[in-house]
Structure formats: structure tokens, C-alpha cells
Amino acid sequence: MSVLLPKPVVPKHWVLDANVLFSEWSRAIIKSLADTHLAQLHWTDQIQHECYRNLVRLGRLHADDADLEQLDLAASLQAKCHVYDAHAYLADVKAVDEKDRHVAAVGLALRHALQANVGIITWNLKDFPRKPLLKLGLVRYSPDELFTELIADPAQALQTLRHTAEGMKRTLHERKRLHPTPYELAARPLPESTEQWLEFLARNRQHKTAKLVSILLA
Predict the structure, then answer these.
(1) How far apart are CA 78 and CA 73, in angstroms?
(2) pLDDT tens digits for 184-206?
(3) pTM greater than 0.90 (yes/no)
């Protein structure tokens, strides 16, 4: 018989997967949600290295700019970048896809250190099965799930999106790239109208968030 696990409260500590750090928008919206929920963001040097290695490999970011951005990434997001090794916990998270086990292992190490549930924030939900992790005190969300879990009011949702966009615009304006890539130069402007937000959210895989905001157009 399948056991229905109770829906947990959103934890106050979140481990970010590399695919969340990969997108400037994902980083920005997670930071906004963390500020609202008074949550602490975490990742490891391994997660950060994986993220920026792929950004450079795919031509999204020049290697020199990647090196500079990594220097203050944790400080800019008020996060903790851990250097410790969590290999001792790998055997306990075998339900997670092998390439992603190090992320869950870090979450479990934090779970034991903090004696509190820990969130795993990732776009690869299929690689992080919910029930086995929940039994370990790890609650996994996509950024889209996390947003709608914390914000249920459509007007508040749109306000949060706009606030995040304004902060991201300031960051982009203040940041000086040494070598802007064609990808960065071709970036679309951030949305302004509600209709533009719906398109933007769908493009960024925030379908649940888009559905919430679409109520404002009904």
C-alpha cells in the first residue's frame, strides 16, 4: 500500500542545483522568494563550478567574465557557498540520479547539521524523486513550484515578478562585462505588461506561475 506523506512546510534553508544558478532570472526570482520567506540559500563549490563550466561551454558567458562573477556570486545573493565534502551521505541518496546525488548529499548534510528540513531547488524534478527524499527530510521543488507554494495571490505574484525584474535590471546595468557574448547581446528585454509576463514565464518554464498570474486577465 502506498503511504501518502503529509505536505511539508516550506523549509528555511534551500540548496540550489546548478541548473537554477545557470539562469540569471532563476537566481533573481529565487533570491526574491528567499527574502520573502526569510530563507537561507546554499550551494557548494562543485555546484557553482558545474554551473559556470556549462555557461562558458555553451557560449552564454565568456570565461573571464565567468571567473569574475563567481568571486562575489554568493555575496550578491546572500548565500553560503560550502567547500566541504558531502560524500559520506551519497549512499543515503541513491534514489537520486547519479549525476545529481552530490546535490542531495549536501542537502542531507545540512539536514543533519541544522536538525531541520532542507529544500532542494532544481529544474530536474525527475532526477530527484519526491518521496524518498521527503523521508530523509529533504523537500524538492522546481523554482515554479516554489513560487506558487509561497505565493497564492495573483496580484502579489505579479508584484513579486515586477520587483524582481527591477532588481535584475539594476544589476545588469551596473555590471560591466569584459567580453559580452552574442547570447547576452541578443537577450530580450524583461516584460512590462501582464501579457508579456505570461509569455516570459512560459518561456522560462514557470507554467504554474503563469497560470496564477493569468487570473488577473480573466
Answers:
(1) 8
(2) 999 999 999 999 999 999 999 99
(3) yes
Q: Which residues contact 201 (CB under 8 A, 6 or more apart)?
A: 161, 207, 209, 210, 213
Instruction: Please choose, from the candidates 152, 161, 168, the residue with its C-alpha nearest in 3D space to the C-alpha of residue 193.
Output: 161
Q: Is there a contact between 8 and 135 (Cβ–Cβ < 8 Å)?
A: no
Q: Rounded to an integer, what distance in angstroms lies between the CA atom of residue 76 and that of residue 191? A: 23
33-89: pLDDT as tens digits: 999 999 999 999 999 999 999 999 999 999 999 999 999 999 999 999 998 777 889
Which residues, 6+ apart, have CB-to-CB distance to 153 below 8 Å? none
Closest C-alpha among 93, 107, 109 to residue 139: 107
On whether the CB atoms of residues 104 and 96 are closer than 8 A, the answer is: yes
Angle at CA of residue 23, ends 182 and 49, nearest 5°:
95
